[in-house]
Amino acid sequence: MKELINTIIHGDCIQEMKKISDNSIDLIFADPPYYLQLPKGKRLKRADGSEIIPVDDNWDKFKSYEDYDNFTKNWIVECQRILKPNGTFWVIGMYHNIFRVGKIMQDLGFWFLNDIIWIKIDALPNLNGRRFTNNHETLIWSVKDKNSKGYTFNYDFLKQMNGGKQMKDTDWIFGLCKGHERLKDQNGIKAHPTQKPLKLIQQVLLSASNKGDLIFDPFIGTGTTAVAAKILGRNWIGIEKEKKYVDLAYKRLSTFLIK
Q1: Number of domains present in the structure of the chain
Q2: Which H helix or E strand runs over 105?
Q3: What is the pTM of this model?
Q4: Alpha carbon distance 108, 113 (integer Å)
Q5: Which residue among 93, 173, 181, 233 has the highest number of C-beta atoms inside a 10 angstrom radius?
Q6: Pick from 80, 111, 88, 99: which is nearest to 35 by CA?
Q7: Residue 163 has pLDDT above 80, yes or no
Q8: What range does the domain containing 181 cover?
Q9: Over the stretch 2-31, which tens digit does the pLDDT of each residue have?
Q10: CA–CA gap between residue 219 and residue 239 (Å, rounded)
Q11: pLDDT digits (tens, 9 = 90+) for 109-161
Q12: What phi-psi label fits residue 188: left (phi over 0), alpha (psi between -120 and 50 degrees) or beta?
């Protein structure tokens, strides 16, 4: 375990999690594939004529809902195993997948503490005018079973952050990841289609962990969870299937002297 701390494991999360000890992780943050089911190569245009590139990467592709559910159950079972009895498990998703994820979590015995709504500033409008603009994502916050006690919740600190008022599950208002924070490739195209804003992950860690805690992310992507953990004085472990994201994450993390 010691050699894994503050490193990214390149590989399949279900297999690589087996290297992590039982009951060893203080907080898990997971941003799994959403299974958006978009046609390969589909493109949309904004009102100004600029192109929107959807999520059509292979890591978001599944044969069916059954295939997606099997994948989801397998990685969540491993997360439940490695989470401490007083640790907490956070999962983020959209309407495409979060209800399926939540059902599987409850079937496995996770006990829900809150569903938290990230309200997205500057969310993309619904371009064809056939639906409401999707302006939020949902985070499920849970413990590993209903008997879990003593989990971390930094209530007073969050109240202070929120101007002296008890923080609500809808007070999470953050802009999308863009500008200098958004990683781009050599062609100026976003390097990862679902990169989350650093402030969002920082708020998760500030809410439910303490300095020195061990944070785990099974889909660490370009390293946002690791960056947030390093800034806030937490240790971390990440897993990422795509080598290009591992390389980007380490390049990004080199600023913070992670070793």
Answers
A1: 1
A2: helix 98-107
A3: 0.90
A4: 15
A5: 93
A6: 99
A7: yes
A8: 2-256
A9: 899 999 999 999 999 999 999 999 999 999
A10: 6
A11: 999 999 999 999 888 787 778 889 889 999 999 999 999 999 999 999 999 99
A12: left
